[in-house]
Amino acid sequence: MEVIIDEMKEEDWPAVRTIHQEGIATGQASFETEVPDRGRWNHEHLDRCRLVARRDGKVIGWAALRPASAKRFYGGVMEDSVYVSAEQRGCGVGGKLLRALIETSEREGIWTLQALIFPENRASEALHRALGFRLVGRRERLGQMNGVWRDVLLMERRSDAAGR
């Protein structure tokens, strides 16, 4: 069945929350240990550039942006989040979501997307590289997770369309 990329709707939140929790549970997607409540999630993410992937009407993945900084001069720099349901990983859903997120962000005038990725999450790193992100650097011992220091890769993609 075909994957449809669509705008995230209010009624998608339960599925988005479940998929987010599945990603957190891997220990490779986020320093977060639980999904923030809907209010905090809404506050942290842009109210635009929120996408879901659907197959047979069911949400199987999501993507959204959050500001990389609260400073106004970084207003076109966003951090991406892309999560795919456990049962759909490895089926190309993440690529469709990230490609659509890039296109949507450029229409919104966003000139830089950045991704913070655990080095062990090779699938996410490969996905981002395939869609034009470059490695900026490795931030060593950036934070602790379950008492263990974790490094984070900083990747970015500069738009050829926005911010020129």
| Total tally of structural domains | 1
Estimate percent helicity: 25-40%
Number of beta-strand segments: 7
What percent of residues are in strands?
25-35%
Q: Give me the side-by-side strand order of the main sheet.
A: 1-2-3-4-5-7-6
Termini Cα gap: 39 Å
Class inferred from helices and paired strands: alpha+beta
Report the top-level CATH class.
Alpha Beta
Give helix and strand order, one letter per element, not per position.
EHHEEEHEHEE
Average pLDDT value?
A: 95
What overall form do the CA principal axes indicate? globular
Q: Count up the helices.
A: 4
| Radius of gyration of CA atoms, rounded to a whole number | 15 Å
CATH topology: Aminopeptidase
CATH superfamily: Gcn5-related N-acetyltransferase (GNAT)
Give a quick account of the main beta sheet: strands, pairing sense, barrel closure: 7 strands, mixed
Give an overview in words.
The chain is an alpha+beta fold and about 160 residues long. It has a single domain, classed as Gcn5-related N-acetyltransferase (GNAT) (Aminopeptidase), CATH 3.40.630. Helix content is about 25%, strand content about 35%. Strands 1-2-3-4-5-7-6 form a seven-stranded mixed beta sheet. It is globular, with a radius of gyration of 15 Å. The N and C termini lie far apart (about 40 Å).
Task: Give a topology summary.
Blueprint: E1 3-7, H1 13-25, H2 38-44, E2 51-55, E3 58-67, E4 77-84, H3 93-107, E5 112-117, H4 122-130, E6 134-145, E7 148-158
Parallel strand pairs: 4-5
Antiparallel strand pairs: 1-2, 2-3, 3-4, 5-7, 6-7
